[in-house]
Amino acid sequence: MTVHRTAHRAPRGRIAGETEIAHAARLLVLDAMRRLDHAAERFEIWWKAQLPRTRVGLAIVSVILGASLLNVLEMRIVQANATPAAVAQATLTTEAAPADAGKTWTVVKMWQGTGVRDTEVFTVSDHWRVDWVFNQTQSVGQMQVYVYSADGKLLNVATNIQHSDSNTTFWGGPGTYLLKVNSTGGDWKLDVQDLH
User: Burial, 109: exposed, middle or buried (Cβ in 10 Å; 0-12, 13-18, 19+)?
Assistant: First the structure.
């Protein structure tokens, strides 16, 4: 990795016709650019001192953190743009395992794969659940499952893990939904079951 630096050698003295504010702003920008160059030089020295496998690991972690940040931003944007009527329309709540005496769980849909996937929509009744398994196959892995309404509004997070695991999340709220899976470094399997 080579950082190309520019020499910030603009005159520090006053330029003809320059106001006091413009002069102060120009000096502030020059100082910020000088500090950025210095930080880039230090980072380049540090980066070159790392082992190749460490560089690869850092690159993978950066990609995962970037994807997580984008997901968080997407959730914030969706929540900020949601109208009160749309939020009232989708009444999804998390539940502890519901009392299922005399009732049975029925598989509505099942999916498996690797990477990112949006499921097709599915319709469930009052009580339903998401079962999931994540098998981490690389040194760094992550799986996130988001619950969306059929019209594309983010409602909740079913799971967010960074290692091999399996579990179930229970939900209350009839309706039509879809799941968005964001996964790296492993394979996954999940299903939706409805309580009848």
Answer: middle
Q: How far apart are CA 131 and CA 185, in angstroms?
A: 20
Residue spans of the domains in the chain: they are 88-195
Q: Give 88-195's CATH code, choosing from 1.10.10.10, 3.40.50.2000, 1.20.1090.10, 2.60.120.380.
A: 2.60.120.380
pTM over 0.70: no
Name the pLDDT band for 9 (thresholds 50, 70, 90).
Answer: low
Within the chain, strands assigned E span 93-95, 105-114, 117-118, 122-124, 127-136, 142-149, 154-161, 165-172, 175-184, 186-195
Q: How many CB atoms lie within 10 A of CB 40?
A: 13
Phi, psi of 87 (to 5 degrees): -65, -40
Extended beta strands in 63-115, E state: 93-95, 105-114
DSSP, collapsed to helix, strand or coil, labels residue 114 as strand
